[in-house]
Amino acid sequence: YWKFTVPKETQCICINCSSDAMLRNIMSFAVVSSENDIRKFYDVCLGNKESFLPIPGSYKTNEKNYSVTLKNLKPGKTYYLCAYKGGALFSSSEYFVQTIITW
């Protein structure tokens, strides 16, 4: 997952994420507002009956590219972009996933 904080002067962010060829077409993405929801996202991807609350408009499955604009976010609040691939929740330090977050 990637942790980011919304700048104090905005309520909107844009996220663009793409993976290398090894991961394409088999990834799931979500933006969540708590560390607890990171684990719930992982459980849902594994097929467990757990549920989580993604930021509205942010949940996508089986994508090679992920692009979303999120509005009405809380300035100064930290959010988490989660990515899942076939049995592993991972971070940018473990796999090549290019992520750009702008506001």
Quick recap:
It contains one helix and eight strands. It is mostly beta strands and about 100 residues long.
Description:
- The structure is a single chain.
- The chain is mainly β and 103 residues long.
- Helix content is 11%, strand content 42%.
- A hairpin with a 2-residue loop joins β6 and β7 (88-89).
Furnish the topology, listing elements before pairings.
Layout (H helix, E strand, L loop, with lengths): L1 E4 L7 E7 L7 E6 L2 H11 L14 E4 L1 E6 L7 E8 L2 E2 L7 E6 L1
Antiparallel strand pairs: 1-6, 2-5, 2-8, 3-4, 3-6, 6-7
Give structural attributes.
103 residues, mainly beta, five-stranded antiparallel sheet, three-stranded antiparallel sheet, 11% helix
The coarse silhouette is globular
* Alpha carbon gyration radius: 13 Å
* Helix content range: 10-25%
Mean pLDDT comes to: 80
Strand content: 35-45%
